[in-house]
Write a structure and sequence with these properties.
By secondary structure, the chain is α+β, with helices and mostly antiparallel strands. The protein is built from 12 helices and 16 strands. The chain starts with a helix and ends with a strand.
């Protein structure tokens, strides 16, 4: 019986080619739009979710009150790293980096592969174990211990060394420093808040005169700092211990308080107003999820309207079938299976369209590896005023 229903459904579709094409392609286009939008929504919702310690990593933030308003900075002073470690047993480790920038990587005597500009960060030894980047070669805990060490992503290592083993080889950094490759990691997923092509030891960065001057200064808020907590550790308990660290170290001219922002909310909830989290990218995600639902709903309504419009033409067919003994349930099953076959074909066509259009769609919504300009508001202890630090990053 089921085979008979399906055979009749295909016969009806081929007999009414124009109607079938309109119905199938109309529903397929609606489904394609829905799939593409939902792919974007899912990518945004799963930002950073690939990290093994997704629920235990936090960004240190500063809430500063001045000028009649409460401002939030994601830049912090260097001495807060050791101070937080000593103050809270719930903290496993703390990572510190620079904001990231493009640097020149070269190999001496290899002119064909020299002068490659890549985006990277200075980072301390806690960074790789904390963020969980998968090591292809090297030890995550030891890779950034040495002053002149560099960790490359797989694609960067391939670009520089080809099929050669990059470990322990020398890379010339900014035509100034000779750094030894101490590790190779998998390329960072696109939906990551912290992206890089290479990492250089933060100890090398500390040799810069201005960084040396900032090592003991609590009024110099200029570095991203990340905190890893122990399993089931309560972030609120940690915050209660560290929130007044700036005041304890002489920062009383401006009221400053530390707090922790969880990794799971970095991307979607990055907007702060009057010192409180108020949203961010989540607003666009919700809007586009609703749009996807509306597009699918409209496609379904159009599908039903076309079926209803043909009901009058099918009345004669129904009458003939009843006259030869067809029951009401048989007629219902036949029409249901016709709809199932039509929607199944439309779904296949819609998924094919989505697959074909996906590369162009990714380019349209900037899901490719394209650098974007960020603005970070920081308080500068050196000049004692607000300024905007412009830097390039993901």
């Amino acid at each position: 019986m089921l085979q008979n229903y399906i055979r009749i459904a295909f016969r009806t579709l081929t007999k009414n080619k124009v109607y079938s094409l309109i119905n199938i392609f109309g529903f397929a286009i609606g489904l394609t739009c829905t799939l593409l939008i939902l792919l974007w929504v899912n990518d945004e919702r799963t930002f950073d979710a690939w990290m093994p310690k997704y629920d235990r990593v936090f960004r240190l933030m500063t809430r500063a009150t001045y000028g009649g308003s409460v401002n939030v900075w994601n830049a912090n002073p260097i001495p807060s790293v050791e101070a937080i470690k000593e103050l809270s047993n719930e903290v496993v480790d703390i990572a510190i980096t620079d904001w990231g920038s493009d640097h020149l990587l070269a190999i001496n005597g290899r002119q064909d592969r020299s002068g490659v500009k890549k985006h990277g960060h200075y980072a301390n030894e806690a960074f790789l174990p904390m963020f969980g980047n998968k090591m292809i070669q090297g030890d995550a805990k030891m890779a950034l211990n040495d002053l002149k060490s560099i960790v490359l992503t797989e694609s960067t290592a391939k670009m520089l060394f080809g099929n050669e083993d990059p470990m322990d080889k020398t890379v010339r950094f900014d035509d100034n420093e000779e750094l030894k490759v101490t590790g190779v990691v998998e390329d960072v997923p696109e939906n990551s808040s912290v992206k890089f092509d290479f990492l250089v030891s933060f100890k090398l960065f500390e040799n810069e005169p201005w960084v040396k001057r900032a090592k003991d200064r609590w009024d110099f808020h200029s570095w991203p700092i990340y905190v890893e907590l122990r399993d089931k550790a309560d972030a609120a308990v940690v915050v209660s211990k560290i929130f007044d660290l700036p005041a304890k170290h002489g920062q009383t001219e401006i009221k400053k308080e530390f707090f922790l922002h969880p990794l799971s909310r970095w991307h979607l909830y990055s907007k702060f107003e009057n010192g409180e989290e108020t949203g961010g990218m989540i607003e666009y995600v919700r809007t586009f999820a609703i749009i996807a639902g509306l597009v699918l709903f409209i496609a379904c309504v159009n599908f039903m309207n076309l079926a209803t419009a043909r009901a009058e033409k099918r009345a004669v067919e129904v009458g003939v079938r009843k006259s030869v003994g067809s029951r009401r349930s048989d007629l219902m099953s036949q029409f249901i299976w016709e709809s199932i076959v039509t929607t199944f074909i439309a779904c296949i066509v819609g998924m094919l369209f989505a697959q074909i259009l996906l590369p162009f769609y990714n380019e349209l919504v900037s899901k490719a590896a394209v650098d974007t300009l960020h603005i970070v508001e920081v308080y500068c202890g050196m000049c004692g005023d607000d300024f905007r630090c412009w830097y390039f990053g993901r």
